[in-house]
Specification:
It is built from 13 helices and two strands, in the order H-H-H-H-H-H-E-E-H-H-H-H-H-H-H. The protein has a two-stranded antiparallel ribbon with strand order 1-2. About 45% of the residues are buried. Strand 1 and strand 2 form a beta hairpin. Helices cover about 70% and strands about 0% of the residues. Helix 2 runs antiparallel to helix 10 and helix 3 crosses helix 10.
Length: about 325
């Protein structure tokens, strides 16, 4: 009897993007249809919803949420989550204000500094996750309060203003009649889509979320890839903080409070699986637009913000239940 040793895997890493494509399209079609229906509903019942002014404001207000949601999608695709992005946004506005207003640091240097801060926060989060194997939910939940506390400590709990005039065009500027934040969002979204769809890095993120052990066997640097996603989302949160600072012309520790919940809601509603490996960035974009359109219409109707929170929670629960039902039908019990 001849015994042959099993050959080590030599092919490409497991591709987690092919099988779930149909499910992703269905989810995107469903939430896309819901977005269209919601827009029609608000056009009929909410005054001025379809006006050019309101739609421009809606896109501008959605920009920060959309930018951070791109980074959160990268993280969630690997089966992780980052709850600290809202606090990073607040800390960014405070540090940027302190550097430019109090320390008189040139604006370009201050911007580079806050991006470096975001990268370090991401590296710290990722290191705790991969070295100590602490769940990212716990790590980032702790960072959520720690970073917010740091922002309050640095600012003394007061608003720091005014910021340099050179910052305001990032929010108030327009190109071809379109607000600058919308252009920035478009750049981030297109870059994110290209990375996830066209690069090995993007395919590897799907592979990790789809089957971590299989990804390890194929030689993927799982830990390094996971850490990189935390750096990405934190740097995009810093970009969001810079935009908010430009909008408010100040630094304030409360900016970005609870934004992480809106970000996760948009990602989940858009069909990205919380356990990783499934979902597409286009779904995230639709999900974020749905969440923000819901809020915009309710505001125009004069509905209490508390009722919006209830509606948002119910939408997220419905999206998660729908995803769970789809997974059960396929026999995937992860």
């Amino acid at each position: 009897m001849t015994i042959q040793a099993a050959a080590p895997p030599t092919g490409k890493p497991p591709d987690a993007t092919r099988t779930p494509r149909l499910a992703a399209w269905r989810a995107e079609l469903g939430i896309g249809g819901g977005l269209v229906l919601l827009a029609v509903l608000w056009t009929v019942f909410a005054p001025n919803f379809a006006s050019a002014t309101n739609l421009s404001i809606l896109l501008q207000q959605t920009s920060v949420l959309m930018i951070v949601a791109v980074g959160q999608t990268f993280v969630i695709l690997t089966g992780e989550i980052d709850l600290s992005v809202g606090s990073t946004i607040g800390l960014t506005t405070v540090v940027l204000a302190l550097l430019t207003v109090e320390a008189h640091v040139p604006l370009p240097v201050a911007i580079v500094t806050v991006f470096a801060m975001g990268a370090l926060i991401g590296l710290f989060t990722g290191a705790l996750r991969v070295v100590w194997n602490i769940p990212s939910f716990i790590i980032t939940l702790g960072l959520l309060t720690a970073l917010q506390g740091l922002a309050f400590t640095l600012s003394g709990g007061v608003t720091i203003s005014p910021l340099p005039d050179a910052l305001s065009p990032l929010w108030d500027g327009r190109l071809l009649g379109i607000p600058a934040p919308v252009w920035l969002t478009l750049v981030v979204v297109v870059a994110g889509m290209w990375v996830l769809r066209q690069t090995r890095y993007g395919r590897h993120l799907y592979a990790i979320g789809g089957n971590t052990e299989a990804a390890r066997r194929y030689g993927l640097k799982v830990n390094a890839l996971r850490v990189s996603t935390f750096v990405v989302v934190q740097c995009l949160a810093v970009l969001g903080g810079i935009l908010y600072a430009a909008q408010l012309n100040s630094g304030n520790a409360t900016v970005g409070d609870q934004l992480e919940l809106d970000v996760i809601a948009g990602v989940v509603v858009g069909g990205v699986a919380l356990f990783g490996g499934r979902g597409r960035l286009i779904g995230t974009i639709i999900g974020v637009l749905f969440i923000e359109t819901l809020a915009n219409g309710l505001t125009l109707l004069g509905v209490s913000s508390y009722l919006y929170l209830i509606a948002q929670g119910l939408v997220v629960i419905a999206a998660v239940v729908f995803a769970a039902v789809q997974q059960r039908r396929k026999g995937d019990t992860r």
